[in-house]
Write a structure and sequence with these properties.
The protein is mainly β and 161 residues long. The chain has two helices and eight strands; from the N terminus they run ααββββββββ. The strands form two sheets. It has a five-stranded antiparallel β-sheet with strand order 1-2-8-4-5, with no helix packed on it. Strands 3-7-6 form a three-stranded antiparallel β-sheet, with no helix packed on it.
């Protein structure tokens, strides 16, 4: 009788063990969510208190400047690239965009080269003693529309003011 009980117990344990070893179908994973657009406000959001962050939602049409500049060891020269995502917030269409080159007013020098608007080469004009960069647009920029400008930047800073 003991043998029969031991044999029955052994087969029961084997049956249970075999169930554990039986391959089970992989669980069906839910459909991944649609990728969301990057949060353009993230660099600004991290520096604000939670109470001040809602103001960023009111700035969806704000122009955005991305500058990747390297300061030389002499601390007087900057070299790099810039990207400007410019949104026309005026009530009129624009045929050009004007940017100020402030170092050119303060005894330094700022030059812009390889200027492109939406990946098309552009030749700028200058005014106000080379402190005004005038970027002509090939197509009118209507109110609410955005253009992306890319450029190389060189700046010589004044050693005194």
């Amino acid at each position: 009788m003991r043998r029969l009980t031991a044999l029955a117990l052994t087969f029961s344990l084997l049956a249970v063990a075999c169930q554990w070893l039986t391959p089970q179908p992989a669980p069906v994973s839910p459909t991944p969510p649609e990728p969301s657009l990057p949060d353009e406000n993230l660099p600004f959001r991290v520096g604000l208190t939670s109470g001040a962050q809602p103001v960023l939602e009111q700035l969806d049409d704000a122009s955005r400047y991305e500058l990747d500049l390297v300061l030389a060891d002499d601390l007087l020269h900057l070299d790099g690239q810039g990207i400007i995502h410019y949104t026309n917030t005026e009530n009129v269409p624009l045929h050009e965009i004007q940017l100020r080159l402030f170092p050119n007013l303060l005894g330094g020098e700022m030059t812009v080269s390889n200027l492109r608007v939406d990946e098309a080469d552009v030749t700028p004009r200058f005014g106000l003693n080379n402190s005004l960069l005038i970027v002509p647009l090939r197509a009118t920029l209507e109110s609410g529309q955005r253009k992306t400008h890319t450029m190389d930047i060189l700046v010589s800073l004044p050693s005194s003011l």
